[in-house]
Amino acid sequence: MESDTRSQIVRLLQEHTKATVDDLCQALGLAAATVRRHLDILQRDALVAYERAQRKAGRPEYAFFLTETGQESLPKDYGRLLALLLREMREVRPAELSEVNGHESVAELLFSRIARRVASDHEHSNGHSGADGLDERVERTAQVLEKEQFHPLVEHHPDGKRIRLLNCPFRTAALEDPSVCSFDAYLISRLTGCEVEREESITTGHASCVYHLITNAKG
Questions:
Q1: Radius of gyration of the chain (CA)
Q2: Which of 24, 31, 130, 197 has the fewest CB neighbours in a 10 Å radius?
Q3: Does 106 lie in the same domain as 10?
Q4: H/E element holding 58?
Q5: For the whole model, what pTM was predicted?
Q6: What gap in Å lies between CA 28 and CA 73, rounded to an integer?
């Protein structure tokens, strides 16, 4: 994308799902006319669409959001996904495929193996201590997820931490087959040492995937 401003708008819409011109002006520190000009270009390129927002009085207001084309303009890595799958298919033993040990499908078994391999690669390259506390593990997990192009956002709630994945590098594949999402869950679980519960998913119409960390695995 040629314009840094338009890239910023796309990232803001990715993070907030929808935003008005006023919202974008405040976030970017730009005049409304400038923001509208960039939005016009994004609409022309089919990256952004809009809908009428709720407003009690005054001029009509519109909320802008990313189209599917806009979502696909964000970092994607389908080639790597295919390469990882093919590697695991070559190396997995027939007995494992027939038993599917605790996994709902062969696909989930493969994605659990991929997540374990990816987590191990990051652990070996970065180094870590098994004695690290939860905050350190979550911070390290967020760093890995950023490298993996998931654009994570760590959220702190009274009942525990959540990790929101603002981008899915395998979005189209996940929408076609939700078992792809098991890679996220296994990777986060392995890196944090926590069980995870998926509370939101792009496969069920949400804007992003959200994982609740259940902290009974490691402190």
A1: 20
A2: 130
A3: no
A4: none
A5: 0.84
A6: 20
pLDDT tens for each residue of 120-138: 999 877 665 555 799 999 9
| Nearest CA among 155, 172, 152, 166 for reference residue 77 | 172
Q: Are residues 21 and 99 in the same domain?
A: no
Closest CA to 170 of 198, 201, 142, 141: 201
Closest CA to 66 of 24, 18, 25: 18
Which of 38, 54, 72 terminates a domain? The answer is 72
CATH number of the domain enclosing 109: 3.30.1380
Other CB atoms closer than 10 Å to residue 133's CB: what's the count? 11
Residue 167 one-letter amino acid: N
Structure tokens at 186: 């296994």
In this structure, are strands 209-214 and 160-165 parallel, antiparallel, or unpaired?
A: antiparallel
- Domain range holding 19? 4-72
